[in-house]
Design brief:
The chain is built from 9 helices and no strands. With 165 residues, the protein is mostly helical. Among the domains are: 13-75, no CATH class; 91-139, no CATH class.
Length: 165
């Protein structure tokens, strides 16, 4: 015969519901919902509650054991702070790139040229993909080079083609 839920929830129902609204982690939401259902006595057996939440009864029993031993802090999974990405391109490089890209006479004919200029001017070692992605993201660059002409292409044929269009 399945066990009936005999856990005593210490927190009040409004307190649990307000804590539930503040949660971002889906696992914490389910764990708090299980406490709310136990507090409201909606289900007579733990197996019914586990099937309602869509989890195995053993998982739910482990949550409830953590709650019984450590309280609410033991039940909820702590939120990990995300590490901020460090940029390889500092403000000084950004400003100089902006000046160079906005000047129609200087500019860059390729990303490789831009990379060499940055590495030589600022004595850094930024990778190609990093600088290319940075320039695309912040400046919307689209450095393109025209296709090479075929060696055997006839100038007369080119002139005839241009006359038709």
């Amino acid at each position: 015969m399945p066990k009936s839920s005999t856990l005593i929830v210490k927190e009040s129902l409004p307190e649990l519901q307000s804590l539930l609204r503040k949660q971002d982690n889906p696992k914490n939401i389910l764990r708090l919902q299980s406490l709310i259902h136990i507090k409201e006595a909606r289900f007579k057996r733990r197996s019914e509650l586990a099937s309602h939440l869509g989890y195995n009864i053993r998982s739910m029993e482990l949550w409830l054991k953590d709650y019984r031993d450590k309280g609410l802090a033991g039940l909820l999974i702590p939120v990990k702070e995300k590490q901020k990405r460090t940029r390889h391109v500092n403000k000084e490089i950004h400003e100089e790139l902006e000046k160079r890209l906005n000047d129609p006479r200087l500019g860059f004919s390729s990303y490789v040229e831009a990379l060499q200029w940055v590495n030589n001017t600022f004595e850094t070692s930024i990778q190609y993909a990093t600088l290319r992605n940075y320039m695309i993201e912040f400046f919307g660059t689209k450095i393109k080079q025209p296709r090479k002409s075929h060696i055997k292409k006839s100038e007369e044929a080119k002139a005839d083609f241009l006359k038709l269009t």
